[in-house]
Amino acid sequence: MSTTTVILIVLGVLVLAVIFIYNRLVRLRNRAAEAWSDIGVQLERRHDLIPNVVETVKGYAAHEARVFQNVTDARARALGAGKGKDVKALQEAENALTGTLKTLFAVAENYPDLKANANFLDLQRELADTENKLQAARRFYNATVRELNTAVESLPYKPFASMFHFSKREYFEIDNEEVRSVPDVSFKESD
Fold first, then answer.
1. pTM value?
2. Of 85, 48, 54, 82, which Cα lies nearest the Cα of 169?
């Protein structure tokens, strides 16, 4: 085997390795973007349900105007934050929205007729289902981000990630301990 052949083989292997590494980084970045989009879909569904819940509760609890305004304002902030790619801003807005939803459902606890209302029960079930799907979307996003971040920070990917401008992404986390718990949207029978 000639020296030229050996050099060509080594160069060929290096080119294939770079292509493999680049393609894996692209695949990871795209999976993270897809996972972020999944969170957006679930948040949109959640945001679409909230006005229906608020209107249903309003019919029973007209004097709780401040609670309704807080939920409406928090929803608007969450919708606005969801338009960008700022994970921190979206986290903060969604944390605030979750907190106001807890207040709304606490108000609903005071109205036995509302808790028995079929429309409200359907909305409550849909919202609980959406919260579960949102939690799953967040877990998938964070797992994908973990995989991307690990590749970006470890060899042999790190030098190529830097060269091709691949960067780490932020996890979607809930900072507030009170908000970490899923809102309690189940209603118990009153005595």
1. 0.59
2. 85
